[in-house]
Amino acid sequence: MVTPKDPLPRKLTAIMQADVVGYSRLMGRDETGTLDRLKAHQQELINPGVEDHHGRIVKLMGDGVLVEFPSVVEAVACAHELQMGMLERNKDVPADEQIEFRIGINLGDVIIEGDDIYGDGVNIAARMEALATPGGICISGMVFDALGNKLPLSYESLGEQTVKNIEHPVRVYRAQLQSDSAHTRPDASQKRGLRKWLYVVVASIVILAVAISSQLILKHRASKTEKASLALTEGIQAAGPSIAVLPFSNLSGETEQEYFSDGITNDIITDLSQLSNLLVIASNSVFVYKNTPVKVQQVAAELGVTHVLEGSVQKSGQRVRINAQLIDAASGHHLWAERFDRNFIDIFALQDEVSKKIVEALAIELTRDEQQRLEHSQQADPRAYDMLLRGLEQLRRFTQDTNILAREYFQQAIDIDPKFARAYADVALTHAMDVLFGWDKGTPEKFAVAFEYADKALSLDDTLEQVHFATSSLYLLNKEHDKAIESARLSVALNPNYADGYAQYAQSLAYAGKPQEALDKLHKAVELNPRNAFFYTWIEGRAHQQLGHLEQAEQLFLDVIERNAHFPGAHLTLAALYGNQGRIEDAEWEAAELLSLRPDFSLRKEAESIPYKKRENLDFYIDGLRKAGLPE
Questions:
Q1: Nearest by Cα to 82 from 139, 16, 12
Q2: Alpha carbon distance 269, 300 (integer Å)
Q3: Model's pTM, two decimal places?
Q4: pLDDT, tens only, 14-71
Q5: I want to staple 34 with a disulfide (CB 3.0 to 4.6 A). Which of 26, 158, 195, 556 is the partner?
Q6: What's the CA gap between 52 and 92, in Å, rounded?
Q7: If DSSP codes are grouped into helix, strand and coil, which group holds residue 342?
Q8: Taking the CB of residue 115, how many other CB atoms lie within 10 A of it?
């Protein structure tokens, strides 16, 4: 008989957490009025709604409320009614006095202590709330699965997200409210003050290195971007064969084996990406579909491809089994399907075989160099490869602890196989991430160690695009712009489908003072990665800002905020933009929100770290931030 380790009682319940957006700002502006309005909303809307749906208010938290329900249906229905009710109640209220909620819902196991509940079930609900937009609702995968079609609502998959203090990534869905189509977006000054931020240090350069996972995709692009993707679709389909490799299913029955099935998927994408006559969609665009039932025709239409590869992976002991099938999107017919059963020691030969079968089925002509690269995509001790995949899974979580753990896995891979170039490159990336995220200072000693690993990777294999990406990131951090640009150029020359390589190329060009060239490279990145992450948009905004396209830059920065409420980089760029336009009140709001999550921010530190090459660009940026009232 197995007895629980925790003597406290537990239960499975639906948890809803709601939080007031911009609570500190509202209180600072009108404390008494805000409290009166919030109390009225609670008494007239929240309490009756919770009671009608058989819920129980666990506790009020000043700017939020924690509620439990007997079912997910009641929880989501109540949340929907609450948000619709708030829209109605805010209809005639001035924009700067409106109260909006973010709501998150989870189905999970909780610990009961008196009238309170706590545990991961509650924590995940809080993380769902943080991912929701103002006036919106986010639900976990557990809630989505349990809901089925029991409510007349639709849901947008945001993919798997890595959330704070939760060991495994969580599937996230955004509930589409019935009024979404009719709800007009507030203007910049209205929306600006209505966001409550969580702490994440500004980072964009090295994030690109590991953007191959879906963990950073919090939203699909806005409608204007989707229209652009549709236009790209026509070009893709007319140009020749194109493919989306859907995430391979993990059939091992063990969630801890997800790193392996994801790694196999990513490596097949990487192998195919090296072929100049085949357009391959980037992996973070396809990982949106992970664990989501989807039709091949839908994937093809949304990503603009002619073919889709899907399959499964099962790793058991020293055996690896892969099932794969290539589907013609237009007809739905299978062009090729095969099952592979190999010893783990033959894992690289197995991946090569899968890639070659796809090339044969699509009748793609290879150059001699491509043929040689496809024959031997990578060589390493399989045990070291396993450590690398484990490290990459941790690296994609973007926390200080997981970054350290990733580096330990990569070092173990090097210890097993001292000639494993990719592992050296990824160690270099972890050091660069330390600097970008503020987990460690960018001292000469730190850069010396990072460059030592990068140089070793290059000496072992200078044909790996990831190696050149790593060196480009380091060079840019070290303000060696020409070398950063050249390394990024080499990465995409080696892999013409390397979307993140093109984005890094654009980033390097933008900081070097070449914004139009940056936009050209970024457009290629978007073509290859139509469901791209928010920082592509941020890079685009910075380029337009340098070109003087201020309205376009402002909208792009607002789009970043709309898609990821955890990224403060857009607040910095908006503060600078507003400051330089003389929109001081707007700039001050942005500065205040930034300081609420980065109280140690200073203009001196920002000027030292931001890698602008041209002095006039740096001075203009810092001057805008100074006008916003940010401290020296």
A1: 16
A2: 16
A3: 0.58
A4: 999 998 887 777 877 788 888 888 889 999 999 999 999 999 999 887 778 999 998 8
A5: 26
A6: 26
A7: strand
A8: 9
